[in-house]
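For reproducibility, we list the full input for the adenosine-5'-diphosphate complex.
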Amino acid sequence: MTGGGIRFDRVTVAYGGNTVLDALDLTVEPGEVMALLGPSGSGKTTALRAVAGFVRPVSGRVYLGDRDVTGLPPHRRGIGMVVQQYALFPHMRVQDNVAFGLKANKVSRPEIPGRVTEALELVGMAAYAGRYPRELSGGQQQRVAIARALAIRPGVLLLDEPLSALDAQLRSGMLAELARLHRELPDVSILYVTHDQVEALTLADRIAVMDRARLQDCGTPQELYRRPRTEFTASFVGNANLLPVTVGPGSVAFAGHDLKLPTGDAATGSTATLCVRPHLVGLGDGPNALTGTVSEVQWRGSTHRLYVDVDGHRVKADMRELRDTPALGEKVTLHFASEDAVLLPVHPARPAVENRTLTGGARG
Ligand code: ADP
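The corresponding predicted structure, in tokenized form, follows.
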């Protein structure tokens, strides 16, 4: 087993002069699950394929442990990889699909049956060894694909949107299954490509947020959720109010309101974006009060979502089911605790974050 994690050292990939991965610096620690999260086309799969050896960086190096593998062909990297479409051989039984990689990796013949059973047992598919892929459900096929990737006992497992071909219910079952698998294989580093924030938040030890060929942010799910560093992260990981403010000494001004927030090293007079999560905004008077009129009320089962127009800015507030919901057009006061707010630099290229459509990211 080749453990030791993955390291991208300023890895750049370009197609026909078009940079699709821009100087990626990222380390996946041994045994860590790292999710690469971002919208479609942001470069996630390209990063994964650079680790697998299917794309050649124009510059930068890829390391597995302390081994520089940048120039190595895929089959010499000792990596397990699972893609969205399972990619099982249809004419081979499950056991032969799993054995395939072992033969390619020159595992000795007598050792193969035991290794096949071991891998199939890991994913709960040992009873299906004699079946053909067409005799299996999508979820079962994906388990076999995972078994095939694990059979070579890789130190690194690459998963490229492994759940996206499954329906919602199967997907949540497979998520739990992947989490269990990782507990059973604690030394395997996993790089997991997804555009789905729920998958990333559920599975990953850390999330690397990608946008437009660049790494935007990297941290634990909690860090990214509570203390995002960019507007993009704030809106892609969870739901966010992103409000334009002007920084004053020890406070910020927003739509005629003076909010007592720590301003850090933001210069007085500069503009910034205030990020506060909708579920941390309360109804009624309190610290950092904002007054506005209710423009929409949505009942979402366990919560009510209020949209409040504060001087032309739409502020979202999620609260546990309200007994008395305010009427449309009613004047209300909202508030939030200073420690629940984060001041972010304004992203010059993305002034209209609220109106952006994101695949699988912020909802609502
Ligand atoms: P993601 O996985 O985040 O959806 P990809 O890494 O697949 O994004 O793609 C990043 C960009 O690179 C996209 O604009 C895509 O069209 C482009 N791209 C990917 N593979 C190729 C290729 N073989 N030739 C040319 N362009 C490619």
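Residues 15, 20, 38, 40-46 surround adenosine-5'-diphosphate (CB under 6 Å). The chain has two domains: 6-231+350-357, 232-345. Both points were considered when choosing residues for closer inspection.
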